[in-house]
């Protein structure tokens, strides 16, 4: 065969691979929509926000495990899971139950609602809640000074952990992108 024929075959294979990669990512990103929507509605959190956290934490992998013991779609730690189980009246709860997508998103949506409710005096409680979700309450209190007490733009600028600042900005961007698109 001529070089030109091989080049055309190679281009077709690359295009096919790119389409397959895109399609698998698209399917995966929609694979958890039903459990995300149900959990979000149960705890009155926007489904797009829950989905954005799931995207950032696990890329929609229900079996994801973090280096500090976080589990599942929303990478929930044992302490937060225990609080949720107690608040929800779930007895005989084990942290490993969070490898179940439904349990994980219910717990994560409950936790997001709890964090959002901590910052009602701010112009954007979601920014503060996401920083809290990622870095913890004590750090949020450190960054939450002066204008940053109520102004989310100033708050994000005060975040001196580059990974947490990137986390908040990335999740907020995905949250906006997912609005109206969680089926």
Q: What would you note in describing this structure?
A:
- This protein is mainly alpha-helical and about 180 residues long.
- The protein folds into two domains: about 1-30; about 35-180, Lysozyme.
- Helices cover about 65% and strands about 0% of the residues.
- The protein contains nine helices and no strands.
- It has helices at about 5-30, 35-40, 45-60, 80-85, 100-115, 125-135, 135-145, 150-160, 160-180.
- Helix 4 (about 80-85) packs across helix 5, helix 6 (about 125-135) crosses helix 7 and helix 6 (about 125-135) packs across helix 9 (about 160-180).
- The protein is globular.
- The N and C termini lie far apart (about 50 Å).
Can you give me a brief rundown of this structure?
This protein has 183 residues and is mainly alpha-helical.
CATH class of the largest domain: Mainly Alpha
So what's the overall shape? globular
Low-confidence stretches: none
What percent strand? under 5%
Q: Helix proportion of residues, in percent?
A: 55-70%
Give the class from helix and strand content and strand pairing: mainly alpha
Report the strand count.
0
Order of helices and strands: HHHHHHHHH
The total count of helices amounts to 9
Give average pLDDT, whole number: 90
- Radius of gyration, in Å, reads 20 Å
